[in-house]
Amino acid sequence: MPPLLEIRGIHHRYGEQKAVRQLSLTLDMGQIGCLLGPSGCGKTTVLRCIAGFEPVSDGTILLNGTEVSTKDFCVPPERRHVGMVFQDYALFPHLTVAANIGFGLHRMEKSARAARVAELLQTVGLTDTATRYPHELSGGQQQRVALARALAPRPDLLLLDEPFSNLDVTLRERLSLEVRDILRQQNATAMLVTHDQDEAFAMADRIGVMQAGEIRQWDTAYNLYHRPANRFVAEFIGQGVFLAGRILDADHVEIDLGTLKGRVQHACAPDCTPCTDHPVDVLIRPDDIVHDDASPLQAEVLHKAFRGADILYTLRLPGGAVALSLIPSHHDHAIGGTIGIRLEVDHVVAFNRTAP
Amino acid sequence: MALLVLIPVGTVASSFLVPADDVWRHLAETTLPGLLANTFWLALGVAGGTVSLGVGLAWLTAVCEFPGRRFFSWALLLPLAIPAYVTAFVALGLLDYTGPVQTALRAWLGTDPGWFPDVRSRGGVITVMVLAFYPYVYLLARNAFLTQGRRSLEAAQSLGLTPRQGFLRVALPMARPWIAGGTMLALMETLSDFGTVAVFNYDTFTTAIYKAWFGMFSLTAASQLATLLVVIVLATMLVEQRFRSRMRYAEARQGQHMRRIALSGGHAWLAAALASATLFLSFLLPVTQLAIWAGGVFSQDFDRRYLEFFGHSLLLSLLATLLVCGFALLVTYAARRHGDALTRVAVRVATIGYALPGAVLAVGVFIPVAWLDNRLADLAAAFLDSGSGLLLQGTLLAVLAAYTTRFLAVGHSPIDSAMQRITGSIDEAARGLGLSGWAMLRRVHLPMLRGGIFTAAALVFVDVMKEMPITLMTRPFGWDTLAVRIFEMTSEGAWEQAALPAVALVLAGLLPIMLLVRQTERH
Amino acid sequence: MTTFRLTRVLIAILCCTSLLAATSARAEQVVVYSARIEQLIKPMFDAFTRETGIEVKFVTDKEGALLARLKAEGRNTPADMLITSDAGNLWEAAREGLLRPVESEVLESNIPAHLRDPGKQWFGLSVRARTLVYNTQKVKPDELSTYEALADPRWKGRLCLRTSKKVYNQSLVAVMIDELGEAKTEQIVKGWVANLATDPLSDDTRALEFVAAGKCDVTVVNTYYYGRLMEKTPSLPLAIFWPNQAGSGVHVNISGAGITRHAHAAPAAIRLLEFLSSEQAQNLFADVNMEYPANPRVASAPAVAAWGGFKQNPINLVRAGELQTEAVKLMDRAGYR
């Protein structure tokens, strides 16, 4: 069975400017995918290409194994059976909530349509607002109407363009979980676009980190965090610092604070075998540095940010390098004081040293 | 403010204080049922025609891409510059039994072809009026489509609607205030029209009004009939408004980039053909005929006075345009600030002058002005001990006041529609930044209303230029305009000589249309 | 921006006002409200000014509007004289008390009695004869006789008429009511309608063109339309037939004038009126539009005279005014649009 969505090396350009280059990914039925990246990286353009609003200048998009976009032809959006939730929701201001949700069910007969609308109203918890107009709803309610409207025709694939960006933080978190549940419940396949990694982590099975029109890594949230494929992903996802180090062998890297043990990834250039004594930068996440009063390693507290359960400390390490550390908040140290630390790196991530 | 505009309408309505039963009885017994049916079908036909043609063309030029689109997008406004009765006369001259087309056909066939449709028929009047009035709908609908953004259409497409279905179910309903506004203008023009139906000898309600006045010397009955007409129009407007009372038309924001729908080969040429045919029939044909006639009389009729007519027309139109747009802005603004039902009705009534036959409204304006003038003259006589005569009438004040009354609807529609696009949150944002009252209008609303204001200005300008009965009745001595010149020629049936001022009128009318086009293109 | 705009408008208006106020400091002048259009009155006014030094200021409009205007302005009206292109509106103006009687031997001797108001409030200045015109290829003149005879079934499908909304048809029918009574007239008008070859036409020229093109054989028009059309296209197969010569005569209407009740310059206005009825002005007045002079001592233009002499209906045109409303109603009843 072919993947539900397969993108093979598509390019897209606006005039001279290339918005998307050589982009490929696949998404299986029932999965939620996400394109994550800073604004202007071309992620929305990819979404619009999938929807059929934009043509591709090269490459192929397949839905259920059928070509829908190539450089020569483009199946119009209305024939793709792809739903879309727009960033600004694009609710029809002249229609009631119920009419908005039922909009895409125009081929359905009346009673079936009413039943489907009622079902979705209940799913998104808006049964009371059926006869209201969009401008009479709150932002969160509008968002849910937009979702329900897009889900109503049971699209093969649902696209969500920055669906929560217009909402406040608490609502955003709650809704993203709610939406995920709704999508799961409807067994929908979805592709999401966002610049917010928390949202991506909360919603998506597979996340593609984009930069300048290219996907730098298409992977699970876990892998993006712990096994970033490149420096950009490593820096973009989560927090952390790079410390200078040296590869000892396939299982060991040495940095100022000691020798790290674990499978060394992404270090050597292909021509560099055996891979020893190679200068690298090692990614150290805040959770890689743990608190240990007994440790001989003492770091100076430069800055601290209280996070409730944890405190995020910015530390000056003995060698002079600066790193972050997430430490349970009952270990309260003053700025300027020292903390005993220990390295506990499960996944060693190292990249070739870049020219300073 | 609105009260000022209401005075002339009120003057006309006050005719009900005097009974004119015999005229009513006579009309009811004889022609009235027929007239009402005629008027109804005419209004229906013109409304249907202008909406189909105007909205269709607006959609094609605003959203689609086809050969010649840029040219057509402004050229399709040109028919505005030609008075409808001129188009009517030319159409009849060309296509009637004695016209060149049928004459040539008869000569060719050697006999009278019975199948040629009778031009002097209901269909003929409707066709001519649609060709003359569709630009009202076209202009407003185009404005709506241009400012609508494409997001909603994309949403419709993503829900499985073809662009055509999206147009019908999303773009069209969302443009409703604009389309309704344009159609209302076309309808009011239709109902108040006398010239066009007279050329076709097609009897409408307005015919009865003129007959009561000129034939039966009962201005009272004429005014009563006119009031009835206005009440019907008012009711229609209020019903339409009620239907969309809770709906909103503001879009959250526009799409970042508008990709026009590129029509495929056959469709593209079809679109171009439709636009060309419309332009040809509604503008090129009448103007060519006018130019030929004008050329024939140019050497004997054209003199320096035309410069004066031209100047008067332009100046009057310009002043009236400023005045009407200012008023329309005020009225719209008042309705926005005080959104209660009473204000809304008052605004509607204030814009109703457009539905009154021009000559009747002219009287409605003239009577209060003359009354005021007489009081002033009495006052002057008491103090200065000299018969100073009438003051206001000698000035442009009367004629400008009359224009304002008549054309407020024309200025109001586009500005009011544009106001619909400004969401309440913008007001709130502006207020949050410490703006209010004039500052808000000047710094926030006016820039956003620009498109609407330019549309209003162009429409009013051209309409004032074409206007005849009010200009005739209220112009100061010596203030002859191009429209007055047309009246002079046509009233004794000298249509070919009327072509010269008509051509000048068309040329003068092109000016604001060009300006408008440059403004909307920048949009 | 708007305030700025409004100020500008006000300034402009004020400028215009002061400008006009300056010009209205009058020398001796007569103010005329005219429904007869500029081209047909200005030459006579110019001649009058040359002869007397009295300026003539005028404004043109439709009769109905001018009457409403005079009425609204009341005694402060600037107008001294009202000119119309039909008798009915002069009659109506007199009835509304907008005109004043004028005692003038000159006018009484220049204008025949049937072309002026017995109450001396208005005077005809030119004669507009409404006659029959037929297609010379399809009708022999001896087939024609009277207006009334056109109701005969033998003309079925052969008659073209201008719309009943035109005052000349209204006055024709009004005069018929006076002569034949209402019932008889209604029968005749119904006969006309039954004989129509096509819906009533919007103007006389068009009616003539339809006859020439063979759509119908005969029509009723004012002579000057015939004159104008033939001047342009002399080859048209059209000819005039003077109807009712054995009876009451050809129906005529007038273009005429009266002095307004509240005229400020009544003597000068009367002088103008007398001038217009004089032999000197009459030719010009009638000839500019191929009409007939009202003054019987003045010969019509050669082109007009060539159509032959005819007997005018001598009925006083006051009757046309008095019966106009009846005529309109009658034509409505008869279905004559």
Could you report the average pLDDT of chain A, rounded to the nearest whole number? 86
Strand order of the largest sheet of chain A: 6-7-8-3-9-10
State the separation between the terminal residues of chain B, measured CA to CA.
32 Å
Q: How many helices of chain A?
A: 8
The rounded Rg of chain A comes to 24 Å
Report the uncertain regions of chain A: none
Helix content of chain A: 10-25%
Shape of chain A: globular
CATH topology group of chain B:
MetI-like fold
Question: Notable features of this structure?
Answer:
heterotrimer, B: 523 residues, mainly alpha, MetI-like fold, two-stranded parallel sheet, 23 helices, 2 strands, globular, C: 337 residues, alpha/beta, D-Maltodextrin-Binding Protein, domain 2, 2 domains, ten-stranded mixed sheet, 14 helices, 10 strands, 16% strand
Give the SSE layout.
The complex is a heterotrimer of chains A (356), B (523) and C (337).
Chain A: E1 5-14, E2 17-27, E3 32-36, H1 43-51, E4 58-63, E5 66-69, E6 82-85, H2 97-102, H3 110-123, H4 139-151, E7 157-161, H5 169-185, E8 189-194, H6 197-203, E9 206-211, E10 214-219, H7 221-226, H8 231-236, E11 241-249, E12 252-255, E13 258-261, E14 278-284, E15 289-291, E16 298-306, E17 310-316, E18 322-328, E19 338-343, E20 349-352
Parallel strand pairs in A: 3-8, 3-9, 6-7, 7-8
Antiparallel strand pairs in A: 1-2, 1-4, 4-5, 9-10, 11-12, 11-14, 12-13, 14-20, 15-19, 16-17, 16-19, 17-18
Chain B: H1 2-13, H2 21-29, H3 32-63, E1 64-65, H4 69-75, H5 84-95, H6 100-109, H7 122-148, H8 151-158, H9 163-174, H10 176-192, H11 195-200, H12 205-215, H13 219-243, E2 261-262, H14 265-301, H15 305-337, H16 341-350, H17 358-384, H18 396-420, H19 424-432, H20 437-466, H21 469-474, H22 482-490, H23 495-522
Parallel strand pairs in B: 1-2
Helix pairs in contact in B: 1-16, 1-17, 1-18, 3-4, 3-7, 3-10, 5-7, 5-14, 7-10, 7-20, 8-9, 10-13, 10-18, 12-13, 14-23, 15-18, 15-20, 15-23, 17-18, 18-20, 20-23, 22-23
Chain C: H1 2-23, E1 29-34, H2 42-52, E2 55-60, H3 63-73, E3 81-84, H4 87-95, E4 99-100, H5 105-110, E5 122-135, E6 159-160, H6 167-180, H7 182-195, H8 204-213, E7 218-222, H9 223-232, E8 238-241, E9 251-260, H10 266-277, H11 279-287, E10 292-293, H12 302-305, H13 318-322, H14 324-333
Parallel strand pairs in C: 1-2, 1-3, 6-7
Antiparallel strand pairs in C: 3-9, 4-9, 5-7, 5-8, 5-9, 5-10
Helix pairs in contact in C: 6-7, 6-14
